[in-house]
Write a structure and sequence with these properties.
Number of strands of chain B: 0
Largest sheet of chain B: none
Order of helices and strands of chain C: HEEHHHHHHHHHHHH
InterPro entries (chains D, E): AAA+_ATPase, ABC_transporter-like_ATP-bd, ABC_transporter-like_CS, ABC_transpr_MalK-like, ABC_transpr_MalK/UgpC-like, Mo/tungstate-bd_C_term_dom, NA-bd_OB-fold, P-loop_NTPase
Strand content of chain C: under 5%
Order of helices and strands of chain B: HHHHHHHHHHHHHHHHH
Subcellular location (chains D, E): Cell inner membrane
Oligomer: heteropentamer
Helix content of chain B: over 70%
Largest sheet of chain C: 2 strands, antiparallel
Pfam family, one (chains D, E): ABC_tran
CATH superfamily of chain C: MetI-like
Structural class of chain C: mainly alpha
CATH topology of one domain in chain B: MetI-like fold
Family (chains D, E): Belongs to the ABC transporter superfamily.
Shape of chain C: globular
Structural class of chain B: mainly alpha
Radius of gyration of chain B: 25 Å
Shape of chain B: flat
Number of domains of chain C: 1
Strand order of the largest sheet of chain C: 1-2
CATH class of one domain in chain B: Mainly Alpha
Number of helices of chain B: 17
Low-confidence stretches of chain C: none
Strand content of chain B: under 5%
Membrane topology (chains D, E): Peripheral membrane protein
Low-confidence stretches of chain B: none
Distance between the termini of chain B: 28 Å
CATH superfamily of one domain in chain B: MetI-like
CATH class of chain C: Mainly Alpha
Bound molecules: adenosine-5'-triphosphate, SN-glycerol-3-phosphate, magnesium ion
Chains: A alpha/beta (421), B mainly alpha (305), C mainly alpha (294), D alpha+beta (370)
Mean pLDDT of chain C: 85
Chain lengths: 421, 305, 294, 370, 370
């Protein structure tokens, strides 16, 4: 029996589900034993994987989020998943994978480098009881609506109309940019080469951040984060905050944790009135196979990929979490079953709708920036600085842009001579 | 005591009581919060008197952070580091103080200067050495051409590798080198009168006999003091285990688990459980210090820089 | 005093010191030399190779306003934490040294913070200072938003510093008390005969006489605030909000391990090392030369 | 005038009584030395006078004031400590002037006073040095200057010379004495060195185990020790003391059946258990066959250069004699001693007190070997 | 038989010569004391014999074996250290038996031997105590027992009594001597206390600054000091030494123009810069007007109990005399001294060596004030 490791970046409830999955895999066959290790979050997993790789102690499989894609692509440390599966005799219909996923995790020629696994997009959660109480029925679709509802809620004595987490740059910035078709970086968000420069200090996000600030100052946005000791999700499920934005992956968690008697629903991220909504970005992570392992271990990894790609397995995963089915056929099957038409899963189909709202544009197929984690951190800091320290929006974003470009230049220099696959 | 001035005595007691409050308040809050129920702990203002949920909170914290095996790991690491440090420190100090060889001061300084290279500042490269502790030797062999020589002669490639990640050895070994311990032992050994060495020489005993039969028994107090300090500091290690154990389940230590106990990672702000967990984690070194206080203080005093 | 009683033996001393020397070379000097090397190169995060870039890593950190902000913050942190901790410990030690009845009890409790792991204290203090829970929660209830370390950098830094200072009380207390108790009793008595009252004796006699200890602790505390603050910050604020609690050691960890900038982090390591060495050096020069009376 | 009065002064630490009730009066301007073995309570007594130690019971008065409840600074005493207790971080001038500074004396006045005192003990050239840069003798002088500058009513010294080497000690003794002669301040000086005590004291207080054994002039204490303890303690080599009793047959019985003829011994001593003492320098060697001589056998000889000590055995009792003869004398050889009865001291074995010998003893050697 | 032979033994530390070339032979069974001031190299010499210090040049032989290159344990010496150097963590029995244990002697035999030795120094009741629970004298005895138990060929003592109080020191002296008498083992004893040296030694080695000044019996050294250094060093109070020269007018000139008549002085000394010495106990007080008496003025008096020391000034030279008279005498009063020329010592000021006075001097007081 061959043992191999799988490191992932999920914790809490999602981590427990992965452990279930690993158990099932181990039970399903006798040749391999997968050891699944949680590294808490995506950043830590990327960091630990790198450290382990440098130490020649890497796992066979690492779950790397969207933001780490370029870091992996240039690392020279992975085995393309297609090659892996082919070599091990698995025939996968790569065309079946959802196009948004492919555009993020595949080469420019469309070859998937990593195994799509848990994919998502950002959603807007809202407490229907509260909204009703201030006379709003249905889903908020525009930020104008959100602002009004928030005001009404405040007036009605709700402390926290909208939960805002400045470390949630993914939903508040990346996804905002995508659905409003705003560039994050030049070179088509970096797809055109490592010499891309960030552009978030121009365009709509500048105003958006200004709006966040206004909302925050009026007490309509309330900061809920790890640092405050009450995360946005916690605040939402406990009805302390009435609206919140986060991944569709949390749909399962919210359903389970929402306090007794609370009614809530989910919507696509709002847009500003008059905006032509674009498709949102694929989030979540894919599974990368790392170099330097034995053929046996690769066999095991391939078997594992095949296992999670099985329709019933994929369906189970989507059910217990909130992640979207990553293949078109999987999605169709679930729709056909009526999965999305009933609570508690109703609403999750909006994620797919959001992802496929339009065909991907130059700025909505994904982000290809090296050391993107560091750039994200800059945005988090900029948002915090504007909110908490009253730094002028433009100045904060310019500052963040300068630093981000330094990060990108350093990355470019470090990989001088290399190009994106 | 010279002055009988009651006013000054009152000032003295008042200050000390204030100090006591200052020192004890955090402990008190940890205990109180650790004994509250979830509702009680979420109340504002906080109750300042313990409730009766301590045991159940301890239990929840214990299972949530998987403290059982982590305790054992911490214990293994702390004891291992402590024993290792004391041994190495005693041996090195013995060598430096009781033998007269040219390089002894150089050796002492080599060891002593490491005081100025705390783990935190050399964390990045230290991690890589932990991945292969024999790396320096490999590099030496490579640069000397020995690898090449052996390879051409025998066809075998010399690949020295000793991985310390995710192992007790890795958690312990890099922490075992100790400038403080060596320094402390050296200071103590220097107070051993020359005559005692000479008496034992006249009695016919050699250096090792002297070390085991005279020096070690005499340094018992120091050893206990050192052991206390070392135990506390190794139990309380945070960054190093955090870095070199990717396999937390098997090699994690309790202190690393603290972060896992902080609410917001698990949903509800159950600070009561967090505090109960913190209590468990604080307790062992606190007990050691409280029990060893006498020696501990004496040992530190004799250090006197 | 130099010793004169030595053993003569060729290999034994080397055998005795070898284990420690090897550990020191492998785990201290080798990594340090590596850091030194990296500081002059651009190292690929996945270890695929590196290129020599001379001083550019240093130039880029020195040219970075945020780095200097971190340096300034570290200095402030170090001075504040050291100051608070030492003043409290010294005051307690001075009074404990009077050895009134029951002092022993106080004394043993004052040492306790020494035993606490920084992250554990961090967790406790985080709760104590949590804006919506614990004790501060009630103050916030009265004046909403008056205290919020999650959004206010100043509050966050203050919280970390207070915790760090608290942790140092035990260690500083022991040393101060030891130093005070090592002062000959007759000096205090001579002071009393000369007519000095207790408080005046503290200022005129005890304080100057324990100057070596004060200085030793000052340096040890400064060094510890520069290096040991990691666990505390990681548990309490992770450097936030907006880097307002990011000190040098935390930044180099963040840049190196989180930012995957091994080279920049190595350069920062070197700077921090030099700082610590400089402090230690100052201590040796100063303590030996200035504050020592035989 | 009485400068210091101790009445039934007792000191008890937790459970141990250390000073058992001392009554002494010290006259104004007197130089009194407290002498006694280590641990007998000398320092404790001195420190109670200084106010550094609480008085368990009894009273201490300085001048006419009972000082029991006064702080040290209010008693007008100055003290010189055994280890000098100089402030190591202050210069000599600052050390001397500290008391004045504390008292709030203006700087100029203070400086002048410090200078004057420093001159009087020849410390002028060292005023800017730290104590660490001074020799032992100089430090000692700083300690003295520091005491003098306050112009105290009483000087207290606690073994101030015990850290000095022999030569310096002798020199400092002379200095202290001349200082006292010059200032005339009442002084109490503690020591366990009898030579120091003898040479310095106007009056001696001999203490033993917390009790005052004798108070008196040095010559009185030497010539008429009031107790066995004093007899044994004062004088070097120590007084020969032989335990036994005066039998009514005219013999003094002692040792292993030894009998010494003492025909005219006072009847008041008869049959009492006593110790009889005679100082070694009062034991004379006499030629063999001298009438009334005591016959002894040499144990060993100690050469002292100018003279020698003969340690001899008299029927199991040890007798030491100072001898300045030069003849060859060795272990096992017979010697013969005599002494004047005037030099005889008798002490009760019960309470160790001196017993007075009724007059009328023969004036010369009268102890005859049985 | 010669037990220890030192030939041109030198010791140099880095750049300082500490022992300058010592040649001494110590006879078997002899008790030799090395006496000299602090820092003169006594300990160094002793430690070279013990093997604790390397010999820079020269040879040391014990018996017939040159031991220069032998380890301490191979030399058959046992040593008693100044601070006893007992193993604080071992009981008395273990301390005494440690050397035997190291030598691998079986337990039973060892115990028997330890017991025997312990008995011989009356330590039996204390065998189970730790050194910390013993008095100074008992510790000293343990140190001695530890040395004895190995039955060494040579005993070495390095100021073994200097940590004891005066009384105990005297007692221990007697004990060491009786021990030596009993065992007859060659002993070398280092001290800087002359009384100790005088009373213990068969022969004295007087050292100064790394050089042997004189080797001889105590009485020889006292009565005929070979050098100025020895003359000044030996004897307490120290010999009166007056620098000056014998003029051919029959006067010895000294001090502030002082002149002493010395009519029959040997011509070999004329006009040389010399020091003239006479011991205080050889200076007699004579009545005023005695012919040939020296007139002096009392500086001060030190009472010693049995006698007193008169410190007096003779034309700017200080003279000390031992006086046993009892008359009132105080500073500034005139006194008159005389002494026998036989008691006179003369030393060259150039090299400090003793100069022999040609015979034929007058037998009595012959120094007359000018
Ligand atoms: N603080 C104390 N607690 C208990 N006992 C004490 C204390 N201080 C002194 N003693 C005891 O009191 C006795 C007298 O002590 P003191 O210092 O007066 O002796 P001393 O005559 O000055 O001796 P020395 O010549 O050694 O200085 C000693 O037996 C000592 O052990
Ligand atoms: N290890 C050493 N290095 C340099 N000089 C030394 C060393 N040991 C001793 N000396 C010097 O050698 C000289 C003789 O020292 P030694 O110990 O023999 O003196 P001593 O006669 O025994 O004196 P004391 O009576 O003080 O013990 C001293 O001046 C001392 O300073
Ligand atoms: O929370 P997830 O798994 O949907 O992922 C969110 C983002 O993609 C993180 O980069
Ligand atoms: Mg005393
Ligand atoms: Mg010596």
């Amino acid at each position: 029996q061959t043992k191999f490791e799988f490191w992932y970046g999920l914790s809490g409830d999602l981590s427990d589900r992965i452990q279930d999955m690993c158990k099932d895999f181990n039970a399903s066959q006798a040749d391999y034993e997968i050891v699944c290790v949680s590294q808490d979050n995506y950043e830590a997993n990327l960091q630990n994987t790198i450290a382990a790789f440098r130490a020649n102690k890497q796992p066979t499989i690492a779950q790397i989020s969207d933001g780490g894609t370029v870091d992996l692509m240039l690392s020279g440390a992975y085995l393309p998943v297609r090659q892996l599966m082919e070599e091990n005799g698995y025939d996968i219909n790569w065309e079946d994978y959802f196009s948004g996923v492919a555009s993020y995790f595949a080469t420019s020629t469309g070859e998937l480098l990593a195994m799509p696994f848990n994919n998502s997009t950002a959603m807007f959660y809202y407490n229907t009881d509260a909204l009703k109480a201030v006379g709003f029925e249905g889903a908020p679709e525009t930020w104008e609506q959100v602002e009004k509802i928030a005001r009404d809620l405040k007036a009605a004595g709700y402390d926290c109309p909208v939960a805002f987490d400045p470390t949630g740059q993914w939903q508040w910035w990346e996804q905002f940019s995508a659905i409003h078709n705003q560039p994050i970086a030049s070179n088509g968000n970096g797809y055109g080469g490592l010499d891309a420069e960030v552009l978030f200090n121009q365009g709509k996000f500048v105003d958006q951040l200004g709006w966040f600030k206004k909302m925050y100052d009026e007490g309509l946005f309330v900061v809920k984060s790890k640092a405050t000791g009450d995360t946005a999700n916690d605040a939402f499920v406990n009805a302390r905050c009435q609206m919140s934005s986060s991944s569709v992956a949390d749909h399962g968690f919210i359903g389970k944790q929402a306090v007794e008697g609370m009614h809530w629903d989910v919507a696509m991220l709002p847009v500003w009135e008059g905006t032509e909504r674009q498709n949102s970005l694929v989030g979540g992570a894919a599974l990368w196979t790392l170099k330097g392992k034995s053929a046996e271990e690769y066999k095991g990894a391939a078997a594992f990929y095949a296992f999670i790609a099985k329709p019933e397995q994929a369906e189970w995963w989507s059910t217990v979490t909130g992640y979207i089915p990553v293949t078109n056929s999987g999605y169709d099957a679930m729709v056909a079953k009526g999965f999305y038409s009933e609570a508690p899963y109703k609403g999750r189909e909006l994620a797919l709708k959001s992802l496929t709202f339009t065909p991907p544009s130059e700025y909505t197929r994904g982000v290809r920036l090296g050391n993107f984690g560091a750039v994200r951190k800059e945005i988090q800091d900029a948002m915090s600085a504007v909110l908490f320290n009253n730094v002028p929006v433009q100045q904060a974003l310019d500052d963040a842009a300068t630093r981000s470009n330094e990060v990108l230049r350093k990355f470019e220099a470090t990989y001088a001579g290399k190009t994106l696959p | 005591m010279i002055e009988r001035s009651p006013i000054f005595n009152i000032v003295t007691y008042a200050t000390m009581i204030l100090g006591l409050l200052l020192v004890l308040t955090p402990f008190w809050i940890v205990i109180v919060a650790g004994s509250l129920s979830l509702q009680e702990v979420s109340q504002v203002p906080l109750k300042l008197w313990p409730s009766n949920h301590l045991l159940e909170n301890l239990e929840v914290a214990w299972t949530r952070a998987d403290l059982g095996p982590k305790m054992i790991n911490s214990l293994i690491v702390a004891v291992g580091v402590t024993v290792g440090k004391i041994t190495l420190a005693a041996l090195s100090a013995f060598s430096i103080v009781f033998f007269n060889y040219r390089a002894r001061m150089l050796c002492f300084w080599l060891i002593f200067i490491t005081l100025m290279l705390p783990l935190e500042v050399r964390i990045v490269p230290t991690y890589s050495i932990a991945a292969n502790a024999l790396q320096p030797f490999q590099v030496i062999l490579d640069t000397l051409g020995i690898t090449w020589l052996v390879e051409t002669v025998s066809g075998v490639r010399v690949g020295l590798e000793w991985n310390l990640l995710n192992s007790y050895t890795g958690l312990i070994l890099p922490l075992v080198a100790t400038a403080t311990g060596t320094f402390l032992y050296r200071q103590f050994f220097m107070t051993i009168p020359d005559e005692l060495v000479e008496a034992s020489k006249m009695d016919g005993s050699g250096p090792l006999r002297f070390f085991f039969e005279v020096l070690l028994p005499l340094s018992r107090t120091n050893m206990l003091a050192l052991a206390t300090i070392m135990f506390v500091s190794s139990w309380n290690q945070y960054l190093w285990p955090l870095l070199i154990t990717t396999d937390r389940a098997n090699f994690g230590t309790v202190v690393m688990q603290l972060k896992a106990l902080i609410p917001a990672q698990n949903g509800t702000p159950d600070w009561n459980v967090t505090m109960a967990g913190a209590l468990i984690i604080m307790l062992p070194p606190l007990l050691v210090v409280a029990l060893m206080q006498r020696w501990f203080v004496r040992g530190l005093i004799s250090r006197d820089k | 005093m130099e010793r004169r009683a030595y053993y003569r033996n060729g290999t034994l001393p080397w055998l005795l010191i070898a284990p420690q020397l090897i550990l020191v070379l492998v785990f201290f000097y080798w990594p340090t030399s590596q850091a030194l090397y990296w500081a002059f190169t651009l190292e690929q995060p996945w270890g695929g190779g590196n290129s020599w870039v001379g001083l550019s890593n240093f130039l880029s950190i020195f040219g970075d306003g945020r780095y200097w902000a971190t340096v300034g913050r570290s200095a402030f942190y170090a001075i504040a934490a050291t100051g608070i901790s030492m003043v409290i410990a010294l005051t307690l030690a001075m009074f404990a040294d009077r050895a009134l009845k029951g002092t022993k009890l106080f004394q043993s409790v004052f040492v306790w913070p020494y035993a606490i792991a920084a992250p554990a204290a961090g967790v406790a203090f985080r709760f104590i200072f949590a804006p919506e829970a614990g004790i501060i929660g009630s103050i916030n209830e009265m004046w909403p938003g008056i205290w919020n370390p999650a959004t206010n950098g100043g509050h966050a830094l203050a919280m970390v510093i207070v915790c760090h200072a608290w942790l140092g009380i035990g260690y500083n207390f022991i040393f101060f008390l030891a130093a005070l108790q090592m002062l000959p009793r007759s000096l205090t008595e001579a002071g009393a005969m000369d007519g000095a009252r207790p408080f005046q004796r503290m200022i005129d006699l005890q304080l100057p006489l324990i100057a070596p200890t004060v200085f030793f602790l000052l340096i040890m505390n400064l060094i510890s605030s520069f290096t040991d603050s990691f666990g505390l910050i990681d548990v309490m604020t992770e450097g936030g909000p907006i880097n307002s609690t990011e000190v040098m050691v935390y930044k180099l960890y963040v840049d190196g391990f989180k930012g995957l900038d091994y080279s920049g982090a190595a350069a920062q390591s070197i700077v921090l090392m030099l700082l610590v060495i400089a402090l230690t050096f100052v201590q040796f020069r100063w303590v030996e030369k200035r504050v020592h009376y035989n | 005038m009485t400068a210091i009065t101790l009445s039934s002064v007792k000191k008890r630490y937790q459970k141990t009584d250390v000073v058992h009730g001392v009554d002494v009066e010290i006259e104004s301007g007197e130089f009194v030395v407290i002498l006694g073995p280590s641990g007998c309570g000398k320092s404790t007594l001195l420190r109670m006078i200084a106010g550094l130690e609480e008085i368990t019971s009894g009273t201490i008065a300085i001048g006419d004031t009972v000082v029991n409840n006064l702080e040290p600074r209010e008693r007008g005493c100055a003290m010189v400590f055994q280890n000098y207790a100089l402030y190591p971080h202050m210069s000599v001038a600052q050390n001397i002037g500290y008391a004045l500074k504390v008292a709030g004396m203006p700087r100029a006045e203070r400086d002048a006073k410090v200078l004057k005192v420093a001159k009087s003990v020849s410390l002028e050239p060292y005023l800017d040095r730290k104590p660490g840069e001074l020799s032992g003798g100089q430090r000692q002088r700083v300690a003295m200057a520091r005491a003098m500058v306050r112009e105290p009513k009483v000087f207290l010294f606690d073994e101030p010379f015990s850290n000095l080497d022999a030569k310096l000690r002798v020199a400092m003794r002379a200095e202290v004495r001349s200082l006292h002669r010059g200032l005339g301040v009442t002084s109490v000086f503690v020591t366990h060195d009898q030579t120091e005590a003898m040479t310095l004291a106007d009056r001696l207080i001999i203490m033993n185990a917390g009790v005052v054994e004798q108070v008196g002039k040095p010559s009185e204490v030497y010539n008429r020790p009031a107790s066995l303890f004093v007899a044994d303690f004062i004088g070097s080599p120590a007084m020969n003391l032989v335990r036994g009793f005066f039998a009514d047959d005219g013999y003094f019985r002692h040792g292993k059946g030894g009998m010494i003829h003492l025909p005219t011994i006072a009847p008041n001593l008869l049959s009492k258990e006593v110790s009889v003492g005679v100082r070694p320098e009062n034991v004379r060697r006499v030629p063999a066959g001298t009438k009334g001589a005591i016959n002894a056998v040499v144990d060993y000889i100690e050469e002292l250069g100018a003279s020698r000590l003969i340690y001899a055995d008299v029927d199991g009792s040890r007798i030491v004699a100072v001898d300045s003869a030069n003849d060859a004398l060795g272990t096992g050889m017979p010697v013969h001693f005599a002494f004047d009865t005037a030099d005889l001291h008798v002490f009760s074995n019960d309470d160790g007190r001196r017993l007075d010998i009724a007059t009328g003893l023969a004036a010369t050697a009268a102890l005859i070997n049985a």
